[in-house]
Specification:
three-stranded mixed sheet; four-stranded antiparallel sheet; elongated
Length: about 220
Amino acid sequence: MRLLSEYINNDFKPFSPSDSVGEIQDFFADCSYSHFPLLENGIYLGCISSVDSETFESDKNIHDYRYSFEGFFVRDTMIWLDVLEVFARNNANIVPILDSNNKYVGYYEITDIIKFLNETPFLKETGGIIVVEKPTADYSMSQITQIVESNNGKLLGVFVSEANAEKVQVTVKTTLGSVNEIIQTFRRYNYEIVSEHNEDNYLNNLKERSEYLDKYLNM
């Protein structure tokens, strides 16, 4: 599997504050980037939004719109989940990358991060996905891991997929073969199974038919 750092991109050089708005508008018209970084003497200043650039006067320099620069970035040491969070939080399809000395080293494109994600065992390997839910005060990641492994399952990935003050949802991907046993053990430990599974669908169908039969007999 490739390293995330192998996806660092430098196909286009960053904007400069002396660039005209017209040049930047032309750049965005020719590509599908939501943002693009600006550097001044090698120092990262922030990103210009393609949407914002459309509202600027084309005969001015981008420096005149310094107030609109967006300062988001990622470090070259960050893991892919944290990188993905920055993409999502800023509604961007490109994020600048800085090293530990705040030196600009390039940018990530969302399409490359998705390619990287598709190569991870969490998506690439065959397995079963279970989404469980429990009150925030009661859930334990170590307990979730123990439940999977005690049923001869191997974790391919686990992460908190939703959380609030009351409940936490955790998405678990495990090797196939022991999913039913894992689900039943989760239930014994008072985890609610949010995702639907074959045996759950079967039980739901039986319940629906039973309720229909009761309704029919009572007519």
